[in-house]
Amino acid sequence: MKLLKAIDLVLDNLEKYACALLLAGLTAVTITKIILRIASLPSSWTEELARLMFVWCIYIGTAHAARYGKHLKVDILSTFVKDRGNYVFRLITNVSSILFFVLLSYIMTLVLQFMLVRPQRSAAIGYDMFFAYLSVFVCAVLSCIRYVEDIVRATVEYKEKRQAKEGV
User: Fold this and answer.
1) C-beta separation of 46 from 30 below 8 A
2) How sure is the predictor about 168, in pLDDT bands with cuts at 50, 70 and 90?
3) Of 112, 162, 144, 152, which Cα lies nearest the Cα of 11?
4) DSSP letter at 126?
5) Contact of 93 with 18, CB cutoff 8 Å
6) Does residue 72 surpass a pLDDT of 90?
7) CA atoms within 13 A on the CB side of 128
8) On the CB side of 42, how many CA atoms lie within 13 Å of its CA?
């Protein structure tokens, strides 16, 4: 459990600070775009850079949301079942999410391999589009880790509740 807490702390800080830096950069680039537009200076690089930062922020935020279970979900069933049912629903949700993100990471591995063989460059800045697509792969890997963490956390919580009930 100590290892889980250490991984959780590292990933949590990494995701929070990365999103904060990306949002700050996105804000700065957008303000720069506004200033350049007011000054009648064309700048397509700002739009491209803002788009790249926004994409990375979304995908890192997706993994961070997985940690706290903040994704859209239907939880009406959990109101009708007891502890064991909630535990089973949580396991089903986590395992299906892991399967989805494993499949996504596999597909993105193929896409990234293709991008290495046939590199594409962005129009204005000229950065390798590999880095834009890499954000999806990073999201999938981080989300898998987060859902595995939640399975462990749910199992520990369920066992503790059962032991507390049996001890009463």
Assistant:
1) yes
2) low
3) 144
4) -
5) no
6) no
7) 11
8) 2
pLDDT at residue 167 is higher than 90: no
Q: Name residue, tokens 């997985």.
A: 66
pLDDT tens track for 12-37: 999 999 999 999 999 999 999 999 99
Tell which residue, 43, 41, 15, 14, has the closest CA to residue 29: 43
Candidates 85, 27, 80; CA nearest to 53 is 27
- Using CA atoms, how far residue 10 sits from 2, 16, 17, 108, 119, in Å, is 12, 10, 11, 24, 32
Report the residue count for the chain.
168
Distance CA 23, CA 66 (A): 19
What values do phi and psi take at 148, rounded to 5?
Answer: -65, -45
Q: Using DSSP, how many helices (H) and how many strands (E) does the chain show?
A: 5, 0
Q: Could you read off the pLDDT of 92-138 as tens digits, one per residue? A: 999 999 999 999 999 999 999 999 999 999 988 999 999 999 999 99
